[in-house]
Amino acid sequence: xxxxxxxxxxxxxxxxxxxxxxxxxxxxxxxxxxxxxxxxxxxxxxxxxxxxxxxxxxxxxxxxxxxxxxxxxxxxxxxxxxxxxxxxxxxxxxxxxxxxxxxxxxxxxxxxxxxxxxxxxxxxxxxxxxxxxxxxxxxxxxxxxxxxxxxxxxxxxxxxxxxxxxxxxxxxxxxxxxxxxxxxxxxxxxxxxxxxxxxxxxxxxxxxxxxxxxxxxxxxxxxxxxxxxxxxxxxxxxxxxxxxxxxxxxxxxxxxxxxxxxxxxxxxxxxxxxxxxxxxxxxxxxxxxxxxxxxxxxxxxxxxxxxxxxxxxxxxxxxxxxxxxxxxxxxxxxxxxxxxxxxxxxxxxxxxxxxxxxxxxxxxxxxxxxxxxxxxxxxx
Length: 380
Prior knowledge:
Elements lengths: L1 H24 L10 E2 L4 E3 L5 E10 L12 H13 L15 E9 L8 E8 L10 E8 L5 E8 L5 E4 L4 E4 L4 E10 L12 E6 L4 H19 L4 E3 L4 E5 L6 H8 L3 E2 L6 E5 L4 E4 L4 E2 L2 E3 L4 E7 L2 E3 L10 E3 L2 E7 L5 E3 L4 H10 L4 H14 L2 E2 L1 E4 L1
Parallel strand pairs: 15-25
Antiparallel strand pairs: 1-14, 2-11, 3-4, 3-6, 4-5, 5-10, 6-7, 7-10, 8-9, 11-13, 12-13, 15-16, 17-24, 18-23, 19-22, 20-21
């Protein structure tokens, strides 16, 4: 009796932990009545970065670089670099494996001036096995218009490793990709200037018509008090246009309107990540009254072959006879009614059913198909 009581207590504790784990898996969105700053939910459309790309060489590798025979572009780049340094190699094979051809990418921040430091990413394009310990040689970085906007050079930071022997190897992450913080130097200022902006286009992080209207109304209330006129108008669910008033700079004006408080509308949305078993349900999600049952079919197949032994002096042959046991069983499940008029009731109803994350994902998808889930379902 004591053992049975202890076992029941353990099972109850496990069930409670499972229910708690499912509750933790739900991430609640911002409450519907919370106020946030405008600059936390929008970005200035003109403040976009510009992508840069360049081709370069990484040197100083410990025998993990490109094999010149399989990567002819590395051989050509090596010869070209040596020619520029006054070392001509007209003939002969270059058999070094301490060099790797790479592509260098970076983002040029909006309004970046000459001398600004930027981070760069390096990726091998040959058959190098690792970039650990390498150094990027001076590499110009080009914009989409073909002009040089930055240059990069420096020692690589590789957050992975590779070790191998005669019969086994171990690799962590990607040893052929690296990063160099602050290795890029802006040589040409980014196009455009924020001080010349006469019309600010505020792009919403989460597009919504009601949020766009509230942002425009909040800005108009402020500009009406401060400048005597309304300067903002909503364009669509993604953007709000605001005119910069005379007598102030765009930076000072945006700093003022960025502090204004608004209440963004939360969309009714359910996001499901089947790989990790994560379920995110927004607070605005509603569920019509629906009856749910969820059970699993268990099928077990086991092989237990037997040996057939002939009688003595029968001149028979010992043989193996196959024997397969198959069991199929359905887990008992009850029909439950869930009426999620709000998020808390929905979560409590699913947890009362004892559903884990995988079961909740299946239930939500079926509820959406049945039309009982009044929200947008996004499956990742």
